[in-house]
Amino acid sequence: MQITYIFVGLFLALIGYIIHFVAVDSKDVITDSHNLRLHELEKTVVRGKIISSDGQVLAQTVTENGEEVRDYPYSRMFAHVVGYNDKGKSGLESKCNFDLLTSNANILSQITSNLKGEKSIGDNVYTTLDTRLQKAAYNALQGQKGAVVAMDPKSGKIYAMVSKPDYRPGLAAENWQELNSSESSLLLNRATQGLYPPGSTFKVVTALEYMREHRNNYQDFKYTCTGSTKIGDLDIHCYGGTAHGTVDLEEAIEKSCNTAFVHMAEDLNKSKFASLAEDLMFDSKVPINLLASKSRFSMNSSSGTNELAHTSIGQGKTLITPLQNAMVMSAIANDGVIMQPYLVEQVKNINGGVIKETKAKELDDPLTKSECQTLKKMLRKVITNGTGTKAYSSQYHVYGKTGSAEYNSAKDSHAWFIGCAEKNGRKIVVSVLVEDGDSGGRVAAPIADKVFHAFFE
Fold first, then answer.
1. pLDDT band at residue 105 under the 50/70/90 scheme
2. pLDDT tens readout for residues 283-332
3. Alpha helices (runs of H) in 193-284, residue ranges in sequence order
4. E strands along 176-252, which residues?
5. What are the phi and psi torsion angles at 109 (to 5°)?
6. How far apart are CA 103 and CA 101, in angstroms?
7. Which CATH architecture has domain 199-342+361-456?
8. Ranges of each domain in the chain
9. 432 near 448, Cβ under 8 Å?
């Protein structure tokens, strides 16, 4: 009887593995550039195009001197998000590999091509990327290391994704040694893989947790800032040593007052704080058509005073990607609902027939509509009278948060801005990270401003 149970158990385990493989792992296996089936398809199918939402070709296969060559009309501008197709694959070239090498052209044209000894034409991938917004973000970031992500908070569509420094994807094989040996990590998509301390942009999360734990009296919060304070054995300073005077919660966000927030955090429940971060998808894999790092939040109920203070102002061990920070702002902009970010709108055959189509999908709803409305009012003050005035416009409504995130013992800082612009029901969220940019308000906010303008123009 025991042997029977063992065989039944093994059989059920096998069935479970098969179900898991089909539902989860099969997509990765199908798109893996080492999959021999895909190498065989390359012999019979011309790789399809990758196309922007405004109808521009981002990648295509052309014939030069009798050989097929992958061409990227926008060169460096879409390097990391579209990717390369030589020496392996990256970006959408990798994640959409199977679709691009599958031909769903009508059967008659496929038979005709086979009889002529010609290849069938692969399906085309239509993305959510907008060339106007990508260009605006790319040009605004010019000459600086960092990333920009622009997305629709209501659907999860990614409008633009820029990472710099960049490279020419059409010359990836030719420049392979340089691309892999450069200290600038040229192949790293900083938008989805770069992990950075969030700095003061994380004060949005800290403020939300304080509001939740003090629902009836958070408006009564008061703190007198002298420009610096001591918590445990830490000396905490406001940016530039500025003394903000007596501030309430709204003013603490508006002025990005570090000392107010670290004292605010002393009164927070560490477990609940960690739970909120988890709800906002820290330490979770972001489901997107690209390689993406997990943002990190290490604080828990046993964390000490120093870690709690650092965490409350987005320093210490807390790390986030520009994409994840865009999702946090999108949750606020979308009345508490986090939508799954996506880059592929449709896959169509050569005749224009739709083979696949992405539908907007809710991931979670960690915030209430009321909480979002309160946060929006506070973040509006950041733009009208606080650290984010360089993102202000009279043409549309903007709210957001700046950040200057220290990343070494010399107190050098990355510059952050996360924000949303709205007009007549249309919304766009932008997350900007500039490495070693120092001031988020001075350096990152103007970059977001240019993307906002491009969107509403």
1. confident
2. 999 999 899 999 999 888 888 888 999 999 999 899 999 999 999 999 99
3. 203-213, 249-254, 258-265, 270-279
4. 223-225, 228-231, 234-237, 245-247
5. -70, -35
6. 7
7. 3-Layer(aba) Sandwich (3.40)
8. 1-31, 199-342+361-456
9. yes
